[in-house]
Structure formats: C-alpha cells, structure tokens
Amino acid sequence: MLGEYRIEGRRASEIAASVEQAVGAGELQPGEVLPPLRELAVYLEVNPNTVAAAYRTLRDRGVIETAGRRGSRVRPRPPSTSREALRVEAPPGVRDAADGNPDPALLPPLERALAEAAACSARRPVLYGAPAVGDDLAALARSAFAADGVAEGPIAVTSGSLDAIERVLAAHLRPGDTVAVEDPGWGSLLDLIPALGLRPAPVGVDEEGPLPEQLARALQDGARAAVVTDRAQNPTGAAVSRDRATELRTLLAEYPGVLLIEDDHGHGIVDLPLHPLSGVTDHWALVRSTAKAYGPDLRLAVLTGDPVTVDRVRGRQLLGPGWVSHLLQDAVAHLWRTSAIDPEEVAGAYGRRRDALIRALAERGVRARGRSGMNVWVPVPDETGAVARLLHSGWAVAPGARFRMHSPPGVRITVSGLSDDDIAPIADAVAAATGVGEARRYE
Q: Could you report the per-residue pLDDT of 90-137, keeping only the tens digit for each?
C-alpha cells in the first residue's frame, strides 16, 4: 500500500500518526494519493468510520486535503525555509537595494515618545486585568480609520501586520480552506498561508491593485478569504484606486461569507488616499502597521473589523501573549498625537526616488512599476541571472522568487537608500543585467 510505505494502526489516532510521521520523514510526498477510505479500512481490518476519523484529523491538521471523488492526497508542505532565506546578502562594497527597509533618516526620533510612555507607566502602572488596548491609542486609531472612510468597528492591537493577519485567518478558517492572495505579493504572507494549512489562490496585480477578474475566479472556485494590500503593495508598489475599489467592493458584495483582510502597512508613508473595501462582507479586518512610518522595531499594528472577528482575535490573544505592551502603545499614541512625521514629506521623498528610477529605467528601455511606497518592481526574463549580474555590478536586489507564485519573474529594488547620484548607475546596471543595454549596442 502506497509503494514502500505501509500505513499502520488500529485506532484513528494511530492511523493519523502513522500518516503524519511518514509525511514528516519524506516517505509520503506532497501530492501523493492516500488509499480510498474503505480500501484502507479493509487492509487495516478496522471500521471505515475509524479511517474516516483519522482522515478528518489529518485534514484538520493540514496534512492532507480531500478533493471529492479524486480522493485524499498529501498537501504541499509548508516551507521549512522561508522565502526570506532567498534574500541576497550584500557583501562588502556592494550597495544593498534589496532589504525592503525604510530610510532611517525618514523615521522620527523615539526618545521623547518612549520617555512619555515611561512617565505614563510610572503614574498608572499597567497590571494584570487591565484593558488590552489603551484608551488613548484606541481613540486615535478610531478617529484615523473614520477619517479614511473605514467601516466602524472595535479596535485590537497586535505585534505587527503579520501577527494580525495570522490571528484573523485563524479566527475564521480551518486547514484546507483557500485564501486569495496577491501574486506577486508579500513573501511572509505567502509563507504564512501554507504554514497554517491553508491553500493560496494567486490573484494578479497591476498598478491599481488586485485584478477583479482574477479575484472573481478565486472566489468562484471557493476561496474563503481574500487578503488585499491597500497601498504600497510589496513588491510592486500598487495602490488600490478609487475605480478599482468600486469594482472590488461590488465583486465582494456578491460573496458576503468571504473573510476580507486589508493590509494598510503603507499608512504614513504614502500620499495617495485610502479607498477601503471594508464593510461589504460579513467578516472583515483592516490592519494598519507602524513599521514603515515609525520603525520596524516598534512591532505594533492596530486593526479594526467586524465585532465577531475582533472579539475572536482579542479572546485568543488573551490565551497567548495577553496584550501588546502599553509602553509601546503609549509611545505610538504620542507619535500619532504629536504628528511626529509629515506623511506628505515622507511620501514625497520616497516618491521622488521611485519616480526618478522608473524614468531612468524607461530611458534605457527597461519597464518598471511602482506607484507608491519604497519599492520598484522590474520584470526580467532571467531572474537568477539578473540578480547575479547586478550583484557583480555592485548592486544587491531582491529576487522575485521571494514574492511570486505563478506570476512572471522579476526583481524588487528598494529605493530607501538611494540618492540622486545613485539613480543613473543602478539604472545602467539593471539595463545591462537584463540584456537591454547589450541589445541597444547592436541596434
């Protein structure tokens, strides 16, 4: 049975453990079909209900998936090495345009905000039993969400965007469910989906956001959730336009049972307006991270959503970390209240570098895009070769494999560390690495 490997066990737990052990050891490969339920029951001399219970356990754990008459098969395993391992480390003498970090010069100083938070803690220490979300931060978040037209909902605080998205997905989905995700999209999210036992359904992206026809196809095929980046999409810089938001809202309204998650990590570093999709499905969440505007080490995001979703997130949080430090919450509240950064100034700084690079590439015959945020996406015919040639030319860029499922190859260039004097040299290097410069020599 199943070639060299024999499933063993008399009880459902033993049968499930036998299969899971074989998958973990590589003896059962992803995509391998398991025996039909009744056939395995005869082989093991057990009741078919016992095998059914074992298969149900394996499905719940995300080990196998069932496709009707096509039977049950081993699911593709979540990556043991995350996509972040595909990053290109910049050796000495090589400029790093791959890391995706904000420009430290555009981050606000944190000393005063942290001192104010510490003083607040000294006056009113936060002890067990205190509310998970500080009143000050909650009020500021609600006001900002309302100003951006986000549907009204309660507030939760998490340790960054990915933590929020994971908690929202876990609040509603079960292993085997399908999630519509952008392709190319955020590499950490593309790792998270299979790690939760969920199945990603790729949705293409242009400069105005997810393509409605591809999202429609994913929803028609049974996707239970969709994750959309509102602005500064990673890696392409897409931002959902007003017209695209109208199309997407109309589409999502036809699927009220779908869980909608919006990622607005670009808040504070973009000058394009938010066009939220929230409120057209029964369950939804919008996540707003502080990482890009105030620094990744703050590890804080606020989310709002429908009451059931936020209540489930808060409830599960209480059984784990309990809450996000009020010292951090108060520091972020201070930064928001005092307008520690000017979003238009920050967005303008990133925009000038982004636009200058895209223009310089276009002058050299290289297509690129980046409507918002700090990244430029460059389609290339040979991703591995382009990355290697750029590294040899003194530039480290991020390989598109970190962000892609089925979309064509490309590389991501982070403009945060680029100066005006860097634009022409890196554009020349990209043109040469993609073969455009060489082709032009013979025109």
A: 889 999 999 999 999 999 999 999 999 999 999 999 999 999 999 999
Q: What is the mean pLDDT of residues 322-327?
A: 96
Nearest to 170 by CA among 67, 62, 72, 83: 62
**Residue 362, token pair as written in the block:** 């276009």
Two tokens at 438? Answer: 């060489």
Distance from C-alpha of 238 to C-alpha of 377, rounded to nearest angstrom: 10
Distance CA 300, CA 396 (A): 29
Domains of the chain, first to last: 12-74 (1.10.10.10), 89-106+342-441 (3.90.1150.10), 111-337 (3.40.640.10)
Tokens of 434: 């993609």
Indicate the angle between helix axes 343-363 and 420-433, nearest 10 degrees: 40
Q: Please state whether 226 falls in left (phi above 0), alpha (psi between -120 and 50) or beta.
A: beta
HEC letters along 299-347: CCEEEEECHHHHHHHHHHHHCCCCCCCHHHHHHHHHHHHCCCCCHHHHH
Per-residue model confidence as pLDDT tens digits over 199-228 = 899 999 999 999 999 999 999 999 999 999
Each residue's pLDDT tens digit, 387-412: 999 999 999 999 999 999 999 999 99
The answer to whether the CB of 169 falls within 8 A of the CB of 155 is: no
Instruction: Taking residues 414-427, report their average pLDDT.
Output: 97
SS (H, E, C) 369-414: ECCCCCEEEEECCCHHHHHHHHHHCCEECEEHHHCCCCCCCEEEEE
**The whole model's pTM is what?**
0.86
Residue type (1 letter), 358 = I
Q: Pick the closest to residue 364 from 294, 313, 436, 280 (CA basis).
A: 436
